[in-house]
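Quick one:
INPUT:
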């Protein structure tokens, strides 16, 4: 799925059944998707996934360093960041610009609900309590 960062759009770009897929195959699929989007002048900035073992291994093979809780890899001399849905479990991500804490995200919810600040993608309690919203795919 490709999703716009500055404007509201999203579109599926491909669909693969990945049950039993290893991290090498997954990396190949990720790179093909990035290359196809780049050919259409859609510049990929972030790859998002959940924290299953295959996704973490794929991120590692792409060059992401999990030990630093900072996920990025290089594609054509620019960084592409990888967001793994472990942030709430790690509580802190170290980035080149400083630390990002899960508590900061949690603190935004009441601010948005009171109308003091509105981000493009409005955070809700469902985002904070995501473990009760886990999708069952079978």
């Amino acid at each position: 799925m490709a999703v716009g960062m500055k404007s509201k759009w999203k579109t599926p770009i491909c669909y693969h059944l990945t049950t039993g897929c290893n991290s090498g195959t997954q990396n190949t699929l990720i790179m093909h998707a990035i290359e196809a989007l780049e050919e259409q002048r859609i510049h990929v900035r972030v790859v998002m996934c959940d924290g299953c073992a295959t996704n973490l291994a794929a991120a590692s093979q792409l060059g992401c360093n999990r030990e630093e809780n900072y996920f990025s890899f290089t594609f054509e001399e620019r960084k592409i960041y990888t967001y793994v849905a472990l942030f709430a479990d790690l509580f802190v991500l170290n980035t080149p610009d400083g630390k990002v804490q899960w508590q900061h995200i949690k603190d935004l919810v009441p601010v948005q609900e009171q109308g003091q600040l509105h981000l493009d993608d409005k955070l809700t309690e469902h985002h904070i309590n995501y473990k009760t919203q886990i999708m069952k795919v079978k």
